[in-house]
Design brief:
This protein has ten helices and seven strands. With 357 residues, it is an alpha/beta fold. The N and C termini lie far apart (101 Å). It comes from Nicrophorus vespilloides.
Protein backbone atom coordinates (compact mmCIF):
# COMPACT_ATOMS: atom_id res chain seq x y z
CA UNK A 1 0.00 0.00 0.00
CA UNK A 2 2.83 2.35 0.93
CA UNK A 3 4.68 1.61 -2.31
CA UNK A 4 1.51 2.14 -4.25
CA UNK A 5 0.86 5.50 -2.64
CA UNK A 6 4.48 6.53 -3.01
CA UNK A 7 4.45 5.53 -6.63
CA UNK A 8 1.25 7.48 -7.22
CA UNK A 9 2.72 10.59 -5.58
CA UNK A 10 5.88 10.30 -7.65
CA UNK A 11 3.88 9.94 -10.83
CA UNK A 12 1.77 12.98 -9.95
CA UNK A 13 4.88 15.04 -9.24
CA UNK A 14 6.45 13.88 -12.50
CA UNK A 15 3.30 14.71 -14.42
CA UNK A 16 3.19 18.12 -12.76
CA UNK A 17 6.80 18.77 -13.70
CA UNK A 18 6.09 17.67 -17.25
CA UNK A 19 3.10 20.03 -17.42
CA UNK A 20 5.17 22.89 -15.99
CA UNK A 21 7.92 22.35 -18.56
CA UNK A 22 5.32 22.01 -21.30
CA UNK A 23 3.61 25.26 -20.21
CA UNK A 24 6.94 27.05 -20.19
CA UNK A 25 7.71 25.74 -23.67
CA UNK A 26 4.31 26.98 -24.84
CA UNK A 27 4.93 30.41 -23.24
CA UNK A 28 8.37 30.67 -24.80
CA UNK A 29 7.00 29.62 -28.17
CA UNK A 30 4.18 32.18 -28.00
CA UNK A 31 6.62 34.89 -26.91
CA UNK A 32 8.93 34.03 -29.79
CA UNK A 33 6.00 34.05 -32.24
CA UNK A 34 4.86 37.42 -30.84
CA UNK A 35 8.37 38.83 -31.17
CA UNK A 36 8.66 37.57 -34.74
CA UNK A 37 5.27 39.09 -35.53
CA UNK A 38 6.30 42.48 -34.13
CA UNK A 39 9.60 42.27 -35.98
CA UNK A 40 7.82 41.43 -39.21
CA UNK A 41 5.28 44.24 -38.81
CA UNK A 42 8.05 46.68 -37.93
CA UNK A 43 10.04 45.60 -40.99
CA UNK A 44 6.98 45.94 -43.22
CA UNK A 45 6.25 49.40 -41.75
CA UNK A 46 9.85 50.45 -42.41
CA UNK A 47 9.68 49.14 -45.96
CA UNK A 48 6.40 50.98 -46.51
CA UNK A 49 7.91 54.18 -45.08
CA UNK A 50 10.87 53.84 -47.45
CA UNK A 51 8.49 53.38 -50.40
CA UNK A 52 6.50 56.46 -49.35
CA UNK A 53 9.65 58.53 -48.80
CA UNK A 54 10.99 57.40 -52.16
CA UNK A 55 7.79 58.43 -53.91
CA UNK A 56 7.66 61.76 -52.05
CA UNK A 57 11.32 62.40 -52.89
CA UNK A 58 10.59 62.05 -56.59
CA UNK A 59 7.49 64.27 -56.33
CA UNK A 60 9.00 67.02 -54.16
CA UNK A 61 12.38 67.15 -55.89
CA UNK A 62 10.64 67.23 -59.25
CA UNK A 63 8.35 70.00 -58.02
CA UNK A 64 11.32 71.98 -56.71
CA UNK A 65 13.22 71.67 -60.00
CA UNK A 66 10.14 72.64 -61.99
CA UNK A 67 9.48 75.70 -59.82
CA UNK A 68 13.14 76.73 -59.97
CA UNK A 69 13.05 76.98 -63.74
CA UNK A 70 9.54 78.40 -63.99
CA UNK A 71 9.56 82.14 -64.83
CA UNK A 72 8.34 84.35 -61.99
CA UNK A 73 5.38 85.70 -63.95
CA UNK A 74 4.06 82.15 -64.43
CA UNK A 75 4.20 81.21 -60.74
CA UNK A 76 1.14 81.77 -58.57
CA UNK A 77 1.49 84.36 -55.82
CA UNK A 78 -1.05 85.12 -53.12
CA UNK A 79 -2.47 88.59 -52.82
CA UNK A 80 -1.50 90.72 -49.82
CA UNK A 81 -4.36 93.17 -50.28
CA UNK A 82 -5.99 94.03 -46.92
CA UNK A 83 -3.72 91.59 -45.11
CA UNK A 84 -2.58 92.92 -41.74
CA UNK A 85 1.21 92.61 -41.78
CA UNK A 86 3.24 93.46 -38.71
CA UNK A 87 6.89 94.26 -39.30
CA UNK A 88 9.48 94.74 -36.57
CA UNK A 89 12.35 97.15 -37.23
CA UNK A 90 10.33 98.57 -40.09
CA UNK A 91 11.47 102.20 -40.05
CA UNK A 92 14.94 101.94 -41.58
CA UNK A 93 17.07 100.04 -44.07
CA UNK A 94 15.47 96.81 -45.26
CA UNK A 95 12.54 97.41 -42.93
CA UNK A 96 11.67 100.72 -44.56
CA UNK A 97 11.86 99.16 -48.03
CA UNK A 98 9.54 96.38 -46.87
CA UNK A 99 7.09 98.89 -45.41
CA UNK A 100 6.88 100.90 -48.64
CA UNK A 101 6.56 97.87 -50.90
CA UNK A 102 3.95 96.18 -48.73
CA UNK A 103 1.92 99.39 -48.61
CA UNK A 104 2.03 99.57 -52.40
CA UNK A 105 0.56 96.06 -52.48
CA UNK A 106 -2.45 97.41 -50.53
CA UNK A 107 -1.58 95.59 -47.33
CA UNK A 108 -2.40 97.04 -43.92
CA UNK A 109 1.14 97.55 -42.66
CA UNK A 110 1.87 97.79 -38.94
CA UNK A 111 5.38 99.06 -38.23
CA UNK A 112 7.17 98.50 -34.93
CA UNK A 113 10.43 100.32 -34.30
CA UNK A 114 12.22 101.85 -31.33
CA UNK A 115 13.14 104.99 -33.30
CA UNK A 116 10.20 107.40 -33.16
CA UNK A 117 11.74 109.91 -35.59
CA UNK A 118 12.33 107.18 -38.14
CA UNK A 119 8.72 106.04 -37.68
CA UNK A 120 7.52 109.56 -38.49
CA UNK A 121 9.67 109.66 -41.63
CA UNK A 122 8.48 106.33 -42.99
CA UNK A 123 4.88 107.31 -42.24
CA UNK A 124 5.39 110.54 -44.17
CA UNK A 125 6.89 108.68 -47.13
CA UNK A 126 3.92 106.36 -47.28
CA UNK A 127 1.47 109.25 -46.90
CA UNK A 128 3.08 111.06 -49.85
CA UNK A 129 2.33 108.02 -51.99
CA UNK A 130 -1.23 107.90 -50.66
CA UNK A 131 -0.85 104.95 -48.29
CA UNK A 132 -1.78 104.70 -44.64
CA UNK A 133 0.37 102.67 -42.28
CA UNK A 134 0.13 102.08 -38.53
CA UNK A 135 3.22 102.90 -36.49
CA UNK A 136 4.08 102.00 -32.90
CA UNK A 137 7.20 102.86 -30.91
CA UNK A 138 8.06 99.49 -29.42
CA UNK A 139 11.11 98.16 -27.60
CA UNK A 140 10.93 94.53 -28.72
CA UNK A 141 13.60 93.54 -26.19
CA UNK A 142 11.03 94.26 -23.47
CA UNK A 143 8.56 91.35 -23.23
CA UNK A 144 5.84 93.33 -21.47
CA UNK A 145 6.18 96.19 -23.95
CA UNK A 146 5.68 93.70 -26.79
CA UNK A 147 2.56 92.17 -25.21
CA UNK A 148 1.11 95.61 -24.40
CA UNK A 149 1.52 96.89 -27.96
CA UNK A 150 0.30 93.60 -29.41
CA UNK A 151 -3.00 94.14 -27.57
CA UNK A 152 -3.13 97.70 -28.95
CA UNK A 153 -2.64 96.44 -32.50
CA UNK A 154 -5.39 93.86 -32.10
CA UNK A 155 -7.85 96.46 -30.81
CA UNK A 156 -6.89 99.30 -33.17
CA UNK A 157 -6.04 97.46 -36.40
CA UNK A 158 -7.13 93.83 -36.09
CA UNK A 159 -5.66 90.36 -35.91
CA UNK A 160 -2.27 90.06 -37.57
CA UNK A 161 -2.19 87.83 -40.68
CA UNK A 162 1.56 87.97 -41.34
CA UNK A 163 4.30 88.55 -38.78
CA UNK A 164 7.75 89.54 -40.07
CA UNK A 165 10.48 89.34 -37.42
CA UNK A 166 12.95 91.65 -39.13
CA UNK A 167 14.62 93.61 -36.32
CA UNK A 168 18.23 92.94 -35.43
CA UNK A 169 21.46 94.51 -34.18
CA UNK A 170 25.16 93.65 -34.25
CA UNK A 171 27.88 94.95 -31.93
CA UNK A 172 30.73 94.77 -34.44
CA UNK A 173 33.54 93.88 -32.04
CA UNK A 174 35.69 90.82 -31.50
CA UNK A 175 34.56 88.59 -28.66
CA UNK A 176 36.65 89.96 -25.78
CA UNK A 177 35.82 93.55 -26.77
CA UNK A 178 32.03 93.10 -26.73
CA UNK A 179 30.55 94.69 -23.59
CA UNK A 180 28.48 92.24 -21.56
CA UNK A 181 25.37 94.39 -21.82
CA UNK A 182 25.66 94.40 -25.62
CA UNK A 183 25.79 90.61 -25.74
CA UNK A 184 22.57 90.54 -23.73
CA UNK A 185 21.01 93.27 -25.87
CA UNK A 186 21.86 91.45 -29.09
CA UNK A 187 20.19 88.27 -27.88
CA UNK A 188 17.17 90.18 -26.57
CA UNK A 189 16.60 91.92 -29.91
CA UNK A 190 17.70 89.26 -32.38
CA UNK A 191 16.12 86.13 -30.94
CA UNK A 192 14.29 86.50 -27.62
CA UNK A 193 11.99 89.08 -29.22
CA UNK A 194 10.91 86.39 -31.71
CA UNK A 195 9.47 84.42 -28.81
CA UNK A 196 7.51 87.41 -27.50
CA UNK A 197 6.15 88.59 -30.87
CA UNK A 198 5.27 85.08 -32.03
CA UNK A 199 3.59 84.25 -28.72
CA UNK A 200 1.61 87.47 -28.97
CA UNK A 201 0.11 86.70 -32.40
CA UNK A 202 0.31 82.95 -33.06
CA UNK A 203 -2.72 82.04 -30.92
CA UNK A 204 -5.01 84.22 -33.05
CA UNK A 205 -3.56 82.73 -36.22
CA UNK A 206 -4.38 79.25 -34.94
CA UNK A 207 -7.92 80.28 -34.03
CA UNK A 208 -8.45 81.84 -37.47
CA UNK A 209 -6.92 78.84 -39.22
CA UNK A 210 -4.45 80.91 -41.21
CA UNK A 211 -1.30 82.94 -40.76
CA UNK A 212 2.29 83.42 -41.84
CA UNK A 213 5.43 83.86 -39.73
CA UNK A 214 8.56 85.22 -41.41
CA UNK A 215 11.99 85.09 -39.82
CA UNK A 216 14.80 87.28 -41.10
CA UNK A 217 17.78 85.00 -40.68
CA UNK A 218 21.28 85.39 -42.06
CA UNK A 219 24.03 83.48 -43.82
CA UNK A 220 25.97 83.90 -40.56
CA UNK A 221 23.35 81.56 -39.12
CA UNK A 222 24.86 78.97 -41.45
CA UNK A 223 28.50 80.00 -41.25
CA UNK A 224 30.04 81.96 -38.38
CA UNK A 225 32.38 84.81 -39.25
CA UNK A 226 34.73 87.42 -37.79
CA UNK A 227 33.37 90.02 -35.33
CA UNK A 228 30.03 88.19 -35.21
CA UNK A 229 30.17 85.93 -32.15
CA UNK A 230 27.08 87.69 -30.81
CA UNK A 231 25.22 88.23 -34.08
CA UNK A 232 26.03 84.84 -35.60
CA UNK A 233 25.04 83.12 -32.35
CA UNK A 234 21.61 84.76 -32.43
CA UNK A 235 21.10 83.89 -36.09
CA UNK A 236 21.93 80.23 -35.47
CA UNK A 237 19.37 80.41 -32.65
CA UNK A 238 16.82 82.03 -34.97
CA UNK A 239 17.25 79.15 -37.42
CA UNK A 240 16.68 76.62 -34.64
CA UNK A 241 13.67 78.50 -33.27
CA UNK A 242 12.08 78.79 -36.70
CA UNK A 243 12.58 75.14 -37.69
CA UNK A 244 11.43 73.82 -34.30
CA UNK A 245 8.28 75.94 -34.37
CA UNK A 246 7.51 74.76 -37.88
CA UNK A 247 7.93 71.15 -36.73
CA UNK A 248 5.47 71.71 -33.87
CA UNK A 249 2.89 73.34 -36.13
CA UNK A 250 3.09 70.61 -38.77
CA UNK A 251 3.02 67.83 -36.18
CA UNK A 252 -0.29 69.17 -34.85
CA UNK A 253 -1.77 69.62 -38.32
CA UNK A 254 -1.57 73.42 -38.55
CA UNK A 255 -0.57 73.39 -42.21
CA UNK A 256 -2.36 76.69 -42.83
CA UNK A 257 0.23 78.53 -40.74
CA UNK A 258 3.02 79.19 -43.24
CA UNK A 259 6.64 79.58 -42.17
CA UNK A 260 9.33 81.39 -44.18
CA UNK A 261 12.94 82.07 -43.25
CA UNK A 262 15.14 84.36 -45.36
CA UNK A 263 18.93 84.26 -44.97
CA UNK A 264 20.70 87.12 -46.79
CA UNK A 265 24.35 87.93 -47.40
CA UNK A 266 25.76 91.31 -46.29
CA UNK A 267 23.31 94.15 -46.94
CA UNK A 268 24.38 97.68 -47.80
CA UNK A 269 22.92 99.54 -44.81
CA UNK A 270 24.46 101.43 -41.90
CA UNK A 271 24.24 98.41 -39.65
CA UNK A 272 27.29 96.83 -41.29
CA UNK A 273 29.09 100.07 -42.01
CA UNK A 274 32.78 99.49 -42.71
CA UNK A 275 32.27 95.94 -43.91
CA UNK A 276 33.94 95.44 -47.31
CA UNK A 277 33.23 92.07 -48.95
CA UNK A 278 36.16 90.97 -51.11
CA UNK A 279 34.55 88.66 -53.64
CA UNK A 280 30.82 89.38 -53.79
CA UNK A 281 29.02 92.74 -53.81
CA UNK A 282 26.79 93.65 -50.88
CA UNK A 283 23.07 93.23 -51.35
CA UNK A 284 20.89 96.31 -51.67
CA UNK A 285 17.95 96.79 -49.25
CA UNK A 286 15.45 97.11 -52.09
CA UNK A 287 16.52 93.76 -53.56
CA UNK A 288 16.29 92.00 -50.20
CA UNK A 289 12.87 93.50 -49.53
CA UNK A 290 11.63 92.50 -52.98
CA UNK A 291 12.88 88.91 -52.56
CA UNK A 292 11.36 88.57 -49.09
CA UNK A 293 7.97 89.74 -50.29
CA UNK A 294 8.15 87.33 -53.24
CA UNK A 295 8.95 84.51 -50.81
CA UNK A 296 5.93 85.43 -48.70
CA UNK A 297 3.62 85.58 -51.68
CA UNK A 298 4.88 82.23 -52.98
CA UNK A 299 4.77 80.75 -49.47
CA UNK A 300 8.37 79.60 -49.78
CA UNK A 301 9.91 77.89 -46.77
CA UNK A 302 13.64 78.57 -47.03
CA UNK A 303 15.38 81.33 -48.96
CA UNK A 304 19.04 82.33 -49.14
CA UNK A 305 20.47 85.38 -50.88
CA UNK A 306 22.23 84.58 -53.10
CA UNK A 307 20.33 81.41 -53.92
CA UNK A 308 23.42 79.24 -54.44
CA UNK A 309 24.42 79.71 -50.78
CA UNK A 310 21.87 77.12 -49.64
CA UNK A 311 23.80 74.46 -51.54
CA UNK A 312 27.37 75.63 -50.94
CA UNK A 313 27.51 76.54 -47.24
CA UNK A 314 26.26 73.16 -45.89
CA UNK A 315 29.26 71.56 -47.62
CA UNK A 316 31.37 72.64 -44.63
CA UNK A 317 29.88 69.62 -42.83
CA UNK A 318 31.25 67.20 -45.43
CA UNK A 319 34.83 68.41 -45.80
CA UNK A 320 37.74 68.48 -43.34
CA UNK A 321 37.53 71.33 -40.83
CA UNK A 322 40.95 72.64 -41.87
CA UNK A 323 39.83 72.79 -45.49
CA UNK A 324 36.62 74.58 -44.49
CA UNK A 325 38.68 77.23 -42.69
CA UNK A 326 41.07 77.55 -45.64
CA UNK A 327 38.15 78.14 -48.00
CA UNK A 328 36.61 80.69 -45.65
CA UNK A 329 39.86 82.59 -45.19
CA UNK A 330 41.49 82.31 -48.62
CA UNK A 331 38.55 82.04 -51.03
CA UNK A 332 35.50 83.59 -49.36
CA UNK A 333 37.70 85.98 -47.37
CA UNK A 334 35.08 86.36 -44.65
CA UNK A 335 37.39 87.58 -41.88
CA UNK A 336 39.10 90.09 -44.17
CA UNK A 337 35.72 91.47 -45.24
CA UNK A 338 34.70 92.07 -41.62
CA UNK A 339 37.93 93.68 -40.35
CA UNK A 340 36.66 97.22 -40.89
CA UNK A 341 33.21 96.69 -39.37
CA UNK A 342 32.41 99.68 -37.18
CA UNK A 343 31.16 99.04 -33.63
CA UNK A 344 27.48 99.54 -32.91
CA UNK A 345 26.62 102.78 -31.16
CA UNK A 346 24.32 101.85 -28.28
CA UNK A 347 21.61 104.49 -28.17
CA UNK A 348 17.95 104.31 -27.27
CA UNK A 349 17.13 106.35 -30.36
CA UNK A 350 18.96 104.06 -32.76
CA UNK A 351 16.84 102.39 -35.37
CA UNK A 352 16.86 98.66 -34.83
CA UNK A 353 16.63 96.72 -38.06
CA UNK A 354 18.20 93.76 -39.71
CA UNK A 355 20.84 94.51 -42.25
CA UNK A 356 23.15 91.68 -43.08
CA UNK A 357 24.20 88.14 -43.54
Amino acid sequence: MYNFLGSSVSELQLNHMNLTVFDRLIDLTMSFVGYCKKLFLSAMASIWDLIVIGALSVIYIGESIALTFTPTFLRSQKSLRNKIILLTGGAGGVGQELTLRLARLKAKVVVWDINEKALEKVQEKCAKEGYKIYTYAVDISDRQNVYKNADLVKSEVGHVDILINNAGIVCGNTFLDIPDHMIEKTYQVNILSHYWTTKAFLSDMLKNGRGHIVTMGSLTGLLGTYKCTDYSGTKHAAMGFHESLMAELKTHGHDNINMTIVCPYFINTGMFSGCKPRNFPMLEPKDVAKRLITAVRREEVYVTMPGWARFILPMKNFIPAKLAWALSYRLIKGPQSMMGLRPFQDSSSSTVEVAAA
